[in-house]
Amino acid sequence: MKIATYNVNGINARLPVLLRWLKETSPDVVCLQELKAPQEKFPEQAIEEAGYQAIWHGQKSWNGVAILARNVKPEEVRRELPGDPEDTHSRYLEASINGILVGCLYLPNGNPAPGPKFDYKLHWFDRLTAHAAELLASEKPVVLAGDFNVMPTELDVYKPERWLDDALFRPETRAAYQKLLAQGWTDALRKVYPNEVIYTFWDYFRNAFGRNAGLRIDHLLLSPQLENRLKGAGVDREVRGWEKSSDHAPVWIELGD
């Protein structure tokens, strides 16, 4: 079973890229972030013609998350993160697919930091951690996949000294990520490639992709029930170089039976 996460940075603007990638790689499950489209503007027909059924939580102009599954309908479990009924951002979606619970998330950026946006990011992280603990307590096989907007270590960022004050790399953000992992989650990409420089995002500016000046901010976390089923992981880096592509590349894992 191949599960992927991809921040598409505007699903309608990047639809040709998304459809090409789906056709060439055939993942079984895909978590999408930053749809940047209201609920009624999701390209459901094009996705279905590509062989996928979808559930999505759209939002006009920004945010938005979706879960796609090949030849099967994702069974929606929830479409918001518990803990703040006044939070209107479309950032979390959860579904059951072939016996696996998949949480698709788009964690807040948090810049500028410090400030209200950074406070919101950390509060959202706290809510995610609390919900993740409940998911672990269920003892179900779970994948938390998405754009976490955190570089966990210096290995995950090009020239880390330049990012010390950024909300994605501040000590509070990295500590929140480590607190989440400490519950018992496995960072799948790091499990497979513990010491390699691997990025999932390259800015559009200053030829960042050409210079490989990237960040690793898109992650797939596995519950203990799935850790031993992890057979492979990777980043489809070449997709970032396609015309009119997102500034993120798809990240994927392969699970055995």
UniProtKB/TrEMBL annotation:
Molecular function via GO: double-stranded DNA 3'-5' DNA exonuclease activity
Cofactor(s), by name: Mn(2+); Mg(2+)
EC identifiers of the protein: 3.1.11.2
Superkingdom field: Bacteria
Similarity remark: Belongs to the DNA repair enzymes AP/ExoA family.
Gene3D superfamilies xref list: Endonuclease/exonuclease/phosphatase (3.60.10.10)
Official protein name in the record: Exodeoxyribonuclease III
Pfam families per the UniProt record, alphabetical: Exo_endo_phos
Keywords (A to Z) from UniProt: Hydrolase, Magnesium, Metal-binding
Signal sequence segment: none
PROSITE patterns per record: AP_NUCLEASE_F1_1, AP_NUCLEASE_F1_3, AP_NUCLEASE_F1_4
